[in-house]
Automatic annotation (TrEMBL):
<dbReference type="InterPro" id="IPR001763">
    <property type="entry name" value="Rhodanese-like_dom"/>
</dbReference>
<protein>
    <recommendedName>
        <fullName>Rhodanese domain-containing protein</fullName>
    </recommendedName>
</protein>
<feature type="domain" description="Rhodanese">
    <location>
        <begin position="98"/>
        <end position="246"/>
    </location>
</feature>
<dbReference type="InterPro" id="IPR036873">
    <property type="entry name" value="Rhodanese-like_dom_sf"/>
</dbReference>
<dbReference type="InterPro" id="IPR043186">
    <property type="entry name" value="Str14"/>
</dbReference>
């Protein structure tokens, strides 16, 4: 008799891995499509259902053995593209934050934010280190240990409540969302020069996924009305020599 298998998901940075978990063995394989965890907060979920007029699973959502609901990256890309999501460069973001017109939200993990972060940024991590010692929590850690040297992460269940705190409950306040690399929705590669060239990159069919883009989607779904995406992320902010704060 074939062993019963269950599906599980593991995320490392912007890449998510999937594994099949048989009764007596664990086989881990790489999954090619990035997925994101949607909000667990019951109030937010109920609000989303009321706004959409639906109580059934929405387009692009996948439930996992870990009792979480994910939205596939291609669906996130489609929604953000249709909404004409706006990205701003680091210089513009710096001016917006310095003038008080926007709040800079850093969705990197807490330990990364603690080491160094953009000046005036508020830590609102989209993911956190795996918490607890339940069977499923330990199974996640095992999955990460089998495929990477990085510590295992899980969705931060307080993401939306922390984002609300960052704007003092004002969902109309402009927020700029920052991660490490930024990502992009662009599917066209542009080559500058004497003879500029543009072409569709098959590897960018759905742009480049990132945590900040996923966070923008989550915030919009939760009712935030003015959410900007930071092009290039923290790496570009640092490279351009913009103000930062480091742990002593």
């Amino acid at each position: 008799m074939a062993a019963v298998q269950h599906s599980a998901e593991f995320l490392v940075g912007p890449t998510r891995f999937s594994s099949k978990l048989p009764v007596k063995a664990i086989a881990v394989r790489l999954r090619h499509h990035s997925l994101i965890v949607r909000a667990n907060d019951s109030k937010v979920k109920a609000g989303n259902e009321l706004r959409s007029g639906k109580t059934s699973p929405q387009r692009g959502q996948v439930s996992t053995w870990f009792d979480e609901t994910y939205t596939a990256w291609p669906e996130v890309h489609r929604v953000l593209t249709e909404r004409n999501m706006r990205s701003v460069d680091c210089q513009e973001a710096f001016k917006l934050v310095r003038s008080g017109k926007a709040v800079l939200i850093d969705v990197r993990e807490p330990q990364d934010f603690g080491r160094v972060h953009a000046q005036a940024a508020v830590s609102v991590p989209l993911f956190r280190l795996i918490q607890g010692n339940s069977f499923k929590a330990n199974l996640r850690r095992l999955g990460h240990a089998l495929i990477t040297d990085f510590a295992g992460t899980e969705r931060n269940p307080e993401f939306l409540s922390q984002a609300l705190s960052a704007v003092n409950g004002n969902q109309k306040k402009t927020v700029v969302v920052m991660c490490d690399v930024g990502g992009t929705l662009k599917t066209i590669v542009e080559r500058p020069g004497i003879k500029p060239k543009s072409y569709a990159d098959p590897e960018r069919r759905y742009g480049r996924a990132s945590r900040s883009l996923r966070a923008v989607y989550e915030l919009q779904e939760a009712g935030f009305s003015s959410v900007l995406h930071l092009t290039g992320g923290f790496n570009t902010w640092s490279y351009q020599g913009l103000p930062m704060e480091e742990r002593d």
